[in-house]
């Protein structure tokens, strides 16, 4: 499938939004990632396939310029983009509360794909904040898989709900001259 | 990083094939094999003049992982045969497992850094174009790398402007959460306003034309490098295949 020039540009802009957005959140020292805003934006504006490409590409570029470990999580980012597009097509980015539910739904499969990568490739740690919560759960007797799974599910639900709300906020304010050129966006209009 | 070593001058696709082999080998080999890969990779980094840069990135990336692996596998996961150091019950088997994971990641990271620090993105694109990759693929890899610096600068400008208007970026977590949309929404909106202009420029150059593009100065390639790429990829697939067969 050949992507339109407009969609290709949107994907490349989205990759940069993901990286710069993630760095902004890091600067504010908040316990979330918010590194999928661009990916979800592409999913909502252009559809599941461009969303998946945006997610995959973000982690590859991130791996090239910042941290090669990010490449291992490329499948997770890809699924976030795909699901955003599918949920937008089903009308789940029309109102703020639907967007919040869509974010929570996206968090579940992204956790299910991310946790085996963390446990089997990285021994259950990522060197980030959630390791502390996972370590606490291990200390009180949970298994490694359960500790990492529950910790990441909690972080992911908050992260993806906030991301989806930001994406809904942005797309609901975009000028018509921009959104009319993305035919797919008709699914996310109130 | 600039340089004129053999690795700097090698075709980017050759280095990419080498990286694929290192990732595959690091996955298959035991800890001692991975340690040899790290030593070999680091010796190559020293010879090409990027040793200090590679070491710095390895330390920054792996230190938090090493601490977390020691705590989780050495102290928290119950295993047989603990050694007591004061009040702490340290699992030697757990520490050994943690070290295995760490050296595997370090081997993959060393290979990635050798590729990243000796390859200019522009050369990778030229190599892809010379091999007939579709323009969309080259654009998707190159464009974010080129957009990153101006957009990061815009994010800095937005941050400074909002702070001048009284936005608190260092206060309580409530203040920092409130600051988030003030920083992110203008950034995304600004990034999207350029879309039309970029579409016009690219379409005006017949960007999506199906004709194969000619690269004026493609990265040097040779029959030896082509054979190296074929052997590296074949070995990588074979190694992973053997791993799957035995498990």
Element layout with pairings:
The complex is a heterodimer of chains A (190) and B (247).
Chain A: H1 5-28, H2 37-46, H3 48-65, H4 74-89, H5 96-122, H6 130-139, H7 144-173, H8 176-179
Chain B: H1 6-9, H2 12-28, H3 31-47, H4 51-76, E1 82-85, E2 88-91, H5 92-116, H6 121-130, H7 135-164, H8 173-193, H9 195-204, H10 223-246
Antiparallel strand pairs in B: 1-2
Helix pairs in contact in B: 2-5, 2-10, 3-4, 3-5, 4-5, 6-7, 7-8
Quickly describe the structure.
Chain A has eight helices and no strands. The mean pLDDT of chain A is 89.
Helix content of chain B: over 70%
> SSE order of chain B in H/E notation?
HHHHEEHHHHHH
Unreliable stretches covering 5 or more consecutive residues of chain B: none
In terms of quaternary structure, what is this? heterodimer
**Strand-pairing-aware structural class of chain A:** mainly alpha
Q: Which whole number gives the mean pLDDT of chain A? A: 89
Question: What's the helix count of chain A?
Answer: 8
Q: What do we call the CATH topology of chain A?
A: Arp2/3 complex 21 kDa subunit ARPC3
Q: How many structural domains are formed by the residues of chain B?
A: 2
**Major β-sheet strand ordering of chain B:** 1-2
Q: In DSSP terms, counting alpha (H) and pi (I) runs of 4 or more, how many helices of chain B?
A: 10
As a whole number of angstroms, the C-alpha radius of gyration of chain B is 24 Å
**CATH classification, class level of chain A:** Mainly Alpha
Q: How do the SSEs of chain A run, as a string of H and E?
A: HHHHHHHH
Q: Give the number of DSSP strands of chain B.
A: 2
